[in-house]
Amino acid sequence: MRLEGKVALVTGGASGIGEATLHKLAREGAQVVVADINDDDARRVAAEIEDVGGSATAVKVDVAVYEQVEAAVQHAVETFGKLDVIFNNAGIAGGKPLLEHDPSVDYEPMIAVDQTGVYYGILAAGRQFVRQGTPGVIISTSSIYGEQAAELAFTYSAAKAAVISFTRSAAYELAGHGIRCVAITPGRVGTPIIQQFDDDLKATFAAEQLRDRLTEPDEIANVVAFLASDEANVINGTVVHVDDGYSV
Ligand code: NAI
């Protein structure tokens, strides 16, 4: 129970990595806020956590709208009295060859969610931690593509690189308030983002990781729970690679 007494908010909590992480954080004793644009599944996840004895609430949020992110943070405070951890994890994937881009379709929406959404999460949670006068942890989901170029990932890579940059700068700016910031870079995780593809493509993705297997969402969740805990107290302003060797 490494997170006993902590309150954690996870964006993109209604599916995949976020959902698995919420279950893990709750098992570690945290009270959790399931924040997602998909309201129905956010409520489902919160109910499933409560069914097994955890403490959870759901809130609808579009991370691309600052007022909604701020309201989600306030929902955490109104429900559980404070906020200790935010996991900025909501994201959308996909991409086209650069020269086929329509900026309003292939650039702006993804930057709004995957990049600006993380900025808003850092800003809203950072402000709340400072208001509370307590230390806080900000974990954000980047990607292997945040550190390297890849086919059909022009916009996604840019947004995920920004997540790493935000994490470094936020750690630098917020350390004086006792706030720690960490980015994670998953490789190929078996969530709906990957499961939508056919078996051949999934096998190709698996083969990109050193042990020829997709990562399970629970395996990412285990790392996030560690990073959220005081055991990770010296991990700050950096990137934790959770890619099973993809990037070696
Ligand atoms: P997922 O599709 O299972 O979950 C993403 C969640 O984000 C969904 O519940 C969705 O409703 C929510 N979401 C989308 N737009 C939103 C918005 N505007 N506001 C609030 N919520 C929104 O995907 P997965 O795989 O769990 O992805 C989680 C994060 O991990 C994403 O940031 C993704 O880019 C990143 N990632 C995933 C990898 C993978 O192989 N699955 C690899 C590297 C990074």
TrEMBL record:
Record key words, sorted: Oxidoreductase
Gene Ontology molecular-function annotations: oxidoreductase activity
CDD domains in the record: SDR_c (cd05233)
One Pfam family hit: adh_short_C2
SUPFAM superfamilies for the chain: NAD(P)-binding Rossmann-fold domains
InterPro entries, alphabetized: NAD(P)-bd_dom_sf, Sc_DH/Rdtase_CS, SDR_fam
Family that this chain belongs to: Belongs to the short-chain dehydrogenases/reductases (SDR) family.
Protein name: SDR family oxidoreductase
Organism: Phytoactinopolyspora mesophila
